[in-house]
Fold this protein.
Amino acid sequence: MSKELNTGKREAPAWVGTPHGRFVYVVDGWQNEFHLRDHLGNTRVVLMEEDTGTLATLQQNHYYPFGMLNPSLSSVRKY
C-alpha cells in the first residue's frame, strides 16, 4: 500500500489494491479504478467509476510485440 496521496490528517493508505484494480482515497472519499489487463498481465486500460455510475478512461496503454510500452499510442495521465 502507498501513502503518497495521504491527506496527513490520519494514518490511512492512499490506495488499496483489489483483484479488479484499486480503490484510491481522494479528499471526499474512495474512488474505484478498474484495470483491464491482457493475457500477459499488462494493464491495457484504467477506468474510473464516476459519481453518475459511468466509466471514464484514465489511461490507455499499447505495447510493442516484444513487450515494451509504445508511448506514441498510449495516453498516460500525469500525476
Remarks:
- The CA atoms of residues 14 and 25 lie 5 Å apart.
- The longest strand covers residues 29-37.
- The chain has a mean pLDDT of 82.
- The two ends are 17 Å apart (CA to CA).
